Amino acid sequence: MTNEEIVEKLNSTKSSDRRRAAKEIGKKIIVELGDDLYKKYLEEIKDKKRWETQCEMIKSLGIINYKNAMGNIEKIVTDNISHDAVTICAATTYVQLKRQSLNDGLPVLELLEFGRISVIIGSLMALAYDKMVPDDNTIEKIIKLCWDLHIHNDISVGISGGRKYLAIACANWDKKLTERILNHYIQTAGKDNNLIDVCNNSLKGKYSKSYL
After folding, report:
1. Rounded to an integer, what distance in angstroms lies between the CA atom of residue 87 and that of residue 84?
2. What are the pLDDT digits (tens) for 9-50?
3. Buried b / exposed e across 50-85, counting CB within 10 Å, b at 16+?
4. How far is it between the farthest Cα atoms of the chain?
5. Where are the alpha helices (DSSP H) in the chain?
């Protein structure tokens, strides 16, 4: 699609068109359409039933690094709602907008220290999707905060707690720092075969892209 066609779909009355347009902006990293995307997002949030479209827009705002969205994104993260898809996407975008580089893990630490499960999952997604490599000290702090995610108070049936995303990120980190937590995740994975596979891949230094 051309930029003109994307803007046309952003202004469509069909949610499917608006989602497609938002996803296209993120996929192609079309920074110049940031204002158009954010304007439509502000309209989209007036109806909570449109959460799927909001999620796609939030994701792309993070990918294109649209800093003007930070206020709205920060509010969603601060509301800190559990088991909420919009909050998960907002947490990922928050990290993307606030970090100084792919080596800056401080925004992830910030969210891990106060967030409930949706904020936690979203912050760990940023680590995995963007192949972030924080400094060793930050990695150690992240690992410590995520050691017992499987028994987090917000965990319920069907909720992974984000361990998979941390395990994926570990593939690009120093094995001396990650080996213990990856083996711990394997030992506590139960029937979560995806988590076990990802951990084994990361122990071999293999990035589990297909599990994202």
Report:
1. 5
2. 999 999 999 999 999 999 999 999 999 999 999 999 999 899
3. beebbbbbbbbbbbbebeebeebbeebbeebbbebb
4. 52
5. 3-10, 15-28, 34-44, 51-63, 70-79, 85-98, 106-114, 117-129, 136-146, 163-169, 175-187, 193-203
